[in-house]
Amino acid sequence: MIVRESNNYVHTLAFQLPKEGKICCGDSFYLKATEDYFICALADGLGSGEHANESSSAVSAIVEQMHGEDVELMMELCNQEMKDKRGATVSILKIDFKNRQFTYSSVGNIRFILCAPSGSFIYPLPLLGYLSGKPQKYRTQTFSYEKGSKFIIHSDGLLLPGIKSLLNKGQSVEDLSRNLESYTENRGDDLTYIVGQLF
């Protein structure tokens, strides 16, 4: 499955495949670009199959309903939604076009990296663990970004040894996605990635 979301400030592409042998993907994502901001969420439900999808889909639904709110509040609401569910690792990225800043928060093994045209990288470290409905602390950080920056968020089903060199190449979001194809074979897990470029 491929989904694109774009406007004058951002161009993104999301790609998803279920674990080999499974019909239902345990990962879920949500993308939305407005005139003021871009928001995306990626959730990886614990395990695989329907129960994992139930948890990750609940995260996407919360962010879809609440995307105008602060990232920290959305993380807390997602955590509350995990009560009596299997739980999920979750990342939420919100980009403020006017101030050229982005806010990122993550719990668990979803990875995010942003590469600036100047060659610098931003790689916020996630908190260990997963959202389960129990009281949880969050590490929510805000960074400035350069025009032309590229980023990727991906679940742990995608193993990327040379992610920095991949992002550093002067290519489009579609080129980036094509270069990732060889890493999407032999899947032992659900796999989702979101690649984007900021204008």
How can the largest sheet be summarized? 6 strands, antiparallel
**Low-confidence spans:** none
Helical percentage: 10-25%
Radius of gyration: 16 Å
Counted by DSSP, the helix tally is 4
Describe the protein.
The chain has one domain: PPM-type phosphatase domain (Phosphatase 2c, domain 1), CATH 3.60.40. The chain is 21% helix and 35% strand. The strands form two sheets. Strands 1-2-11-10-7-8 form a six-stranded antiparallel β-sheet. A five-stranded antiparallel β-sheet has the order 3-4-5-6-9, with helices on one face. It is globular. Strand 1 (2-6) and strand 2 (10-17) form a beta hairpin. Helix 1 packs antiparallel against helix 2 (71-81). The longest helix has 17 residues, at 50-66. By secondary structure, the protein is an alpha+beta fold. It has helices spanning 50-66, 71-81, 163-168, 173-180; strands at residues 2-6, 10-17, 27-33, 37-45, 88-96, 101-107, 111-115, 121-122, 140-144, 150-154, 191-198.
Would you spell out the secondary-structure blueprint of this structure?
Elements: E1 2-6, E2 10-17, E3 27-33, E4 37-45, H1 50-66, H2 71-81, E5 88-96, E6 101-107, E7 111-115, E8 121-122, E9 140-144, E10 150-154, H3 163-168, H4 173-180, E11 191-198
Antiparallel strand pairs: 1-2, 2-11, 3-4, 4-5, 5-6, 6-9, 7-8, 7-10, 10-11
Helix pairs in contact: 1-2
Protein name: Phosphoserine phosphatase
Pfam families: SpoIIE
InterPro entries: PPM-type-like_dom_sf (IPR036457), PPM-type_phosphatase-like_dom (IPR001932), Ptase_RsbX (IPR039248)
